[in-house]
Each structure stands twice: as C-alpha cells, then as structure tokens.
Amino acid sequence: MTITEDHVPGLIVCVFLLAVGIAVLWHGGREVRVTRRLRDHGVRTTATVIGHERGHTIDQPLYGYSDQQGGQFTLTPTDSHDTFTPVGDQADVLYLPEDPGTSRLAATEGTPWKIAPFAFMLGALLCFGAVAFAVTLLSDPAPLAPPAPQAPAPQAPADSSSASTSMFTTAVCAGILLLALTLPVLRITSFALLHRTGIHTEGVVVRRTDASQSAAWLVDFEDHDGRRIQFASRRVPKRAGARIPVVYHRDRPQQAENASWAPVLRANVPAVLLLLFLLTMIPTYL
Predict the structure, then answer these.
(1) Which of 45, 10, 84, 19 is nearest to 232 (CA)?
(2) Which residue range(s) make up the domain with 83?
(3) Mean pLDDT, to the nearest integer, of 102-128?
(4) Treating both helix axes as pointing N-terminal to C-terminal, what angle do 160-197 and 116-138 enclose, rounded to 10 degrees?
C-alpha cells in the first residue's frame, strides 16, 4: 500500500473527521464522568429560578442555589428544551462539594448516559466514516508507471481483493444508514413510553414564541399539583385558543409534549421508510 500525492487531500479530510469524532467522543465521556461523580459524591440541594437567559426558541431558566458554606452559584441547564420554567419554580440540583460551581439538574441531567448518547453516536459515526474513507482511498493504489503496450487479453475475472472492497463498502454504507435509522426510531419509542406512563391532561395554545424566527407556539396547562406550566411546541394547531391533549412525566412537567400521535408519526415515519428503502437498495448499486 503506497501513499501518493493523489491520496494526500483525501487523507487530510480523513484526519480532520477523525479529530472531530475524537473530540465529540471526549465531550461525551466528560459528561459521563461529571454526572457519575455527581451521582456518587454530589450534594443535593434545592435551586430556584431567579431569571432567564435568551434561548433559541424561548428563554431558558437561570437557577440559583447555595452550597453548604453559603456561597451563591447559578446554573443554566445544558440540556435545552422547548420549555418555559417560570421564576420561582424550584428543582433539585447536584453539585460537587470540591467544586460547587459544577452542577447539574438532578432530575434531567444528573444521571450518566442521559446527555452523552448523542455525542457518542455522532463521534462514533465520524470516526467510523473517517477510517472507512481512508481504507477505501488507500485500497485503490495509483499505478507506479505507465503500462507497456501489449496485445489485447481476455477480461480477467474480478479478484478476491475487489470483492472484499465491495463487501467492506457495503458494510460501511449499511452501518451508517443503521446509525441514522436509530434517531427516528428512538424518538418514536420514547414518545410511546411517555404516552403510556405519563400523566395526561389538556392544554391551551397561547401564542407564537417568535413570529419572525420560530414556528413554535406556547401552550399553557396545569400539572397534577395545580401549578401553571408552559411549554413550546411546533406540533400544535397554529391558532391561539386551540385546546390540545398534553402528556408529561410526573417529575418533569416542564418537558410536556403534545399527546397526539399524528405529529410524531408525520415527523419520523417518512425518515424511517426512506432509510429502510436505502438499505434495501445498497446491494443494487454496490
């Protein structure tokens, strides 16, 4: 296997993708380490929403809490949702006793593997694609010298090397499509679990979050404790005053969703069918 000048641009791309993949994997691993330390050694305390910071769709809550020495700290959740948490709402947080500024929400961010899976999936996909591209690039060596003129010869059958390359390329494409297929499948299964185990109620569409930049609408409802909760969703009727079914986890009412199956299926089933179709077409083109 000889590396020539023609291979250099492709190998640079491979190295870049591999570096990005490793960085993403490192970030996912760091989140797992931090949340695991918080689970094993973290101190639990109560934080109160003291304000908001501007988010992509609606404002995100800013929590304030105190450590055991009376120091004041703030926490902006890293896991951003299309939700709104009013000022005065409280939530449990976990912080490290040796570093009180390192904290996570106990219910949604203080458990290992809740935030990291997407980082691991993306990092593995980038690393896998970089290695596969490099192997495919180097398996087709450039000729070392122009071939000498010779009499025409019968076409030789494909050797085992070509067959192995074709099988490897097929496996790479199938692996990438299967990884992509997990995203809509996970969305559907997670909604099914929420729909089966969550608390169902009714909400009212209030208004659009940002008429110029976002298609999300705000929905008001009361949770099981009688608190007014508000969340944003793009999967609701685009009309103020419309009533919709709402479902939420008992311990996380701020992360409520439209309880109707139709928007979830419309958003994810076409992607599943397309990816399955591409999987069946791989042998035809390779």
Answers:
(1) 84
(2) 43-105
(3) 70
(4) 170
